[in-house]
Amino acid sequence: ERPRPCPPIDALPPKLSVTAVETLVRDAYAIYARQILKLEQAMMRVSSDTKIIANSEFVRFEIQQYYDTPPERVQVVYNGYKPRPVKDGTREEMRRKLGVEDREILLLFTGTGWDRKGLQFAIEAAHQMRAERVKLFVAGKGKPAAGWEKAATFLGPVEDMISLYEAADIF
Fold it and tell me: Coil, strand, or helix at residue 153?
């Protein structure tokens, strides 16, 4: 099946309904996604000699499973992180800003792609530990699912992640 091209912008009527715009955007994205998928398939196929870098064992496993890629072609290179020195008192200051008392446990979940990364499991774990005074904080972009706002504090994007990690008991 050949994807139909998006019309040039000057060929569009001057006024489009929201539905028409949504359809154009969806169609354009579908074409883009199919092209990316074809590129991925070409790079990952068994006959290709392209070396592949995955950022985790899980991603390596997925590549090997979905594309039948030989293991010797996929190398894991973990994301790098070089922490800067933390000033004394940073932990206490950040916990105070977040409203977390000394006797409470700060559980930190970071990143985007919450469904894929398992935020629902962190919420369930925090809920099971409520008797132990656990507070769950989520740093990163995303839209909380219904009911999640009661289970966690959503911070949005955070500039000073180092201090946030320093304040956390579990992350």
Answer: strand
For residues 93 and 97, what is the distance between their CA atoms, to the nearest angstrom? 6
| Helix-helix angle 18-44:57-67, to 10 degrees | 90
- Which pLDDT does position 7 carry in this prediction? 59
Let me know: does 132 contact 156? Beta carbons within 8 Å: no
Pairing of strands 153-156, 134-139: parallel
Model pLDDT, residue 125: 85
Distance between the two ends of the chain, CA-based, in angstroms? Answer: 46
Largest CA distance in the chain: 64
Strand partners, 139: 110, 156
For residue 11, report the phi and psi dihedrals to the nearest 5 degrees. -90, -5
What span, in angstroms and rounded, lies between the C-alpha atoms of 144 and 89? 31
**Rg value, the chain, Cα:** 22
Name the DSSP letter for residue 96.
H
Query: E strands of 20-161, at which residues?
Result: 52-54, 74-76, 105-110, 134-139, 153-156
Residues of the chain with pLDDT under 50: none
